Prior knowledge:
Blueprint: E1 6-8, E2 21-27, E3 35-39, E4 42-43, E5 50-55, E6 59-64, E7 75-79, E8 82-85
Amino acid sequence: EPDVTIVSDLKDMVVFEGDDVTFRCQVSHENARDIEWKLQDVALQNNEMNEISVEKGKIHTLTLRKVTEQDVGTITFRVGPHTSTA
């Protein structure tokens, strides 16, 4: 299986409380496995507050809905041994 790398890193975002924010990270191959999103070292799951999806097979997205002050911190995207933070 080819080594999947990060092609396009996460970008830092500034948002207002109550807004939604979307982070995007592009990887080198479609159908990448071993993907993980974290906020402040806490793994995020796909639910009503966090929407995790894949666009066009290679662009992994995380949307945080109605952010609060508690959502301030570092977002980490990991694929295998490679990570990107914002």
